[in-house]
Amino acid sequence: MSSWILLFLGIHCLSSVDGQIKLKIDTSKFNLEPLKALVKDMPFISRDKKDTVISIIDNPIQAIANATSTPICQRPAPYETLTLALQWTPGLCHQSKRGYCNREKVVNYFTIHGLWPSSLKTNSSSSKKKVKHPEFCCNQNFNMTDAKASIHGLDKVWPTVLQKSSLESFLDHEWRKHGSCAHASSAKIKSHADYFNVTGQLYNKTKIGDWLASEKILPRHNYAYSTEQIHRAISSKIGDRDVIVSCRIQNKVSYLKEIRICFDPDTLEYKDCYGRNRDINCKNNRAIFIPRN
After folding, report:
1. pTM of the shown model
2. What is the DSSP letter of 117?
3. Bridge-partner residues for 117, per DSSP?
4. What is the pLDDT of residue 74?
5. Phi and psi dihedrals of 15, rounded to 5?
6. Given this model, what pLDDT does residue 19 score?
7. Cβ(271)–Cβ(220) under 8 Å?
């Protein structure tokens, strides 16, 4: 029976040497994300570049079951900043390929993409600093009930516009990839419910659409605002803190896609992101703030 389960999961026994059972896991058949923390942190497990080979002294079936069902929060990943990414879905979906976006979910207000623990790290090969996001730190299942209880109108403020993604799968992805790392450096986020509650709080106080409108930056066709105008309009409302503007290039034209605002993980006060020179894909430092069609 045990052998049948192993084969079903894509796990094959390679050898048994000196009391150790060595297993090879076929990553195309088995979701290894929960197991990565185990592979990284436990001394009796090793891995190579292409496949994961684990050497388990006692009970391999039980170890794998534990890896996929028990919260594993043994990978602290300290960070300095919480980055709130707010997406502008008209720009994200403008002239996108057929079937990419669900047009009914495109709205004329900023919605949540995610809340991401972030750090500025030095690239060892080039000595340049780059924003890094710790990922997949804890194997704790996503709970839709927590998310709905924490954020009023969840499907309106944190929707998925991608045609092939459900709301639950999108939020599950954001939780597992980013939210599971948030507890490491934040006094405010110590649980799954805290992550969604804090995300909702930060979204509610960050009125990007109103701030842009107050500076006469409004959605318009065929008119490109300078990213500096966008920076000034938002920064003036949050203590002159830097933000990040992200664009999507379509037919050599930049469309505003996302704005990222940064917070201190302990106080949840606005803080500088990582410099205005870190804007993303905004050609000639300009962006069309396109309205919903």
Report:
1. 0.74
2. E
3. 82
4. 56
5. -165, 165
6. 42
7. no
Cα 147 to Cα 139, 154, 158, 200, distances in angstroms: 17, 7, 10, 9
What is the β-pairing status of strands 81-87 and 244-250?
unpaired
CA distance 21 to 15: 6
Yes or no: say if 13 and 21 are a contact pair by the CB < 8 Å rule.
yes
- Pair type for strands 224-226 and 286-288: antiparallel
Bridge-based pairing state of the strands 11-17 and 20-25: antiparallel
Location of structure tokens 């107050």 = 214
Q: Tokens for 160?
A: 């998925």
> Which tokens in the block code for residue 74?
């043994």
* Helix 33-41 × helix 60-69 angle, to 10°: 120
Residue 244 burial class via C-beta count within 10 angstroms: exposed 0-12, middle 13-18, buried 19 and up: buried
- For residue 66, CA distances in Å to 74, 111, 289 come to 14, 36, 48
Could you tell me which CATH number the domain at 81-288 has?
A: 3.90.730.10
Rounded CA-CA distance 225/18 in Å is 68
* Token pair recorded at residue 204: 């509610």
Nearest by Cα to 5 from 62, 70, 48:
62
Question: Quick one: tokens of 22?
Answer: 């060595």
Counting Cα atoms < 13 Å in the Cβ hemisphere of 174 gives 24
Q: Which two tokens stand for residue 288?
A: 């069309």
Provide the residue ranges of all domains of the chain, joining segments of one domain with +. Answer: 2-69, 81-288
Residue 215 in tokens = 């500076």
Low-confidence residues of the chain, pLDDT below 50? 1-22, 26-31, 36-58, 61-71
